[in-house]
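On clarity, I found the account of how folds are encoded harder to follow than it need be. Since the whole study asks how a given chain folds, the encoding of that fold should be made plain. For illustration, here is how one protein appears when written out as sequence plus structure tokens:

:::
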Amino acid sequence: IVYKGNPYADHNSTAYATYERGVEVGCWGLCINAVSSALYSYVQRFLLPYIGLKGLYFMGYFVFGMGTSLIGLFPDVIATLILCSVFGVMSSTLYTIPFNLIAEYQHEEEEQLKLQDSKKSPRGTGMDCAALTCMVQLAQIIVGAGLGGLVNAAGSVIVVVLSASAMSLIGCIFIALFIRYVE
């Protein structure tokens, strides 16, 4: 998006050198992503009492959606590297908040069974976490399979970040409407 290089150009051409420079800077972006993911995962514990799991979930998707839209609208090297931190926020959100929600839902289910004096054992947390992990992986496979066609249809890779932004903002709506936070 930023460098507009060509991986298929001759290896001694400017277009290929530009592509290689983009890959190098992209690696720095991945490093920023990893650091921001680790930092945000740590900061979540301090934010949790103030905005709760649902708020953290919404905020993660919203920050990612806004950041990716800015990358697509303003494809600049420095801006893109700075905004790579939003990918870390999304990674941290995606791999922590849903699992915490499952734990809360499991706890609520156990409390309801105790109140009802039921002998029925609750469904295991491990089963729910495994199902959630499978859904995340399946979603990544579907996205990976569909993005090539989307890029070909649009004729630009900018459609990747703009569609990610749109889906993230749709996710915000889903979180606001359908995620129930257990106190």
